[in-house]
Amino acid sequence: MAKVKPFRGVRPPKALVEEVVSRPYDVLNSEEARKEAEGNEKSLYHIIKPEIDFEPGTDEHDPKVYEKAVENFKMFQEKGWLVQDEKENYYIYAQTMDGRTQYGFVVGAWVDDYMEGRIKKHELTRRDKEEDRMKHVRVNNANIEPVFFAFPDNEVLEQIIKDVTAEAPEYDFVAPDGFGHTLWSITDDSLITKITEEFEKIPNLYIADGHHRSAAAALVGAEKAKNNPDHKGDEEYNYFLAVAFPASHLKIIDYNRVVKDLNGLTEEEFLNKLKENFEVEDKGEEIYTPNALHNFALYLGGKWYSLTAKPGTYDDNDPIGVLDVTVSSNLILRDILGITDLRSDKRIDFVGGIRGLGELKRRVDSGEMKMALALYPVTMNQLIDIADSGNIMPPKTTWFEPKLRSGLVIHKLD
What we know:
This protein is of the alpha+beta class. The chain is built from 13 helices and 21 strands. The protein has helices at residues 17-20, 30-36, 45-48, 63-78, 111-115, 127-140, 155-165, 189-200, 211-227, 267-274, 324-334, 357-365, 380-388, and strands spanning 4-5, 10-11, 83-84, 90-97, 100-110, 119-120, 142-143, 147-151, 171-174, 180-186, 205-209, 239-246, 252-253, 255-259, 278-284, 295-300, 303-309, 348-352, 371-374, 399-400, 411-412. Strands 1, 4, 5, 6, 8, 9, 10, 11 and 12 form a nine-stranded mixed β-sheet that branches. A six-stranded antiparallel β-sheet has the order 15-17-16-19-14-18, sandwiched between helices. Strands 2-3 form a two-stranded antiparallel ribbon. The longest helix is centred in the middle third of the chain and has 17 residues, at 211-227.
């Protein structure tokens, strides 16, 4: 059963929220962060990408960079740019994109739920990335950025969302990317108890986005427990910062592929090889979007093609075999193009669907890439099936948008 708790959030005063909050640390590089934070000493990038306070080219893993994060986090609190709430609250965080709003609960998630597999994952993590985030959590003694969870829909929690969001919010603004962000504090004790109890009825939480952050936060919590001779189990470090959304609120968008060459084949030979496992249809120059599971869009030589996988090339009864990522990775990337390791092969790149299929066309037309493949997005049900069956998704399968804004609420570990 999912165990969550309210906590004393550390957050910006209402008047400063837009200056403080930022995009997550892993969606932009150091130079982009430097540019976004330019002229803004209150930007959270000074804490989550503190290398921007050094000469360009400074290694973000340099010990002095982590020290700078601590110094800046302390300064933000001293200057009143981040202030800790008096009492333990839950919060509701709403994100609006393209006229659609999703509502999530900001909670302290229990470290043991992660360690014992009740917080389920669908992606492999890389130890080097975990280690970087662990250092960041350790030195700041805080989860500066939240992780993004989904949970099976729950009627009581849905009603709480409706009731709380009918009131005036604490924060309500549109970020530079055009997405809306709204936050409410839940301070009523009876409501707080009810939320805790309802989460206890939910068997599992699912990591939607932020596998490295989840691993790092949980591992640091477990480490602190182990190193504390007086550990009781109710300490703040036993919990980490998460925003948990009902699964039906979330929409996964497509995650597409671009490839540099055809593995020595001509365009005609490549198309003929595709015909062995796919119905191939020429769609001309108009952008073609995949319209169902097992239907793909190929852009090659200035033209779009519809590729429909033939029956027998996929397994709809297998949580991994049903995925179009699996079908395309095996039948196109591996068998025809000789690309076997999606994580390390330099011949392939990945483009989040937020950029649109026009970005695929642009990268091929520019000559940088030879072909592009657009996939039908994975569903939340597929993600949950995979996590429940203990399977791992192939790399670069899911893209969630909008991303959680960092700095709306921070969780201290003491």
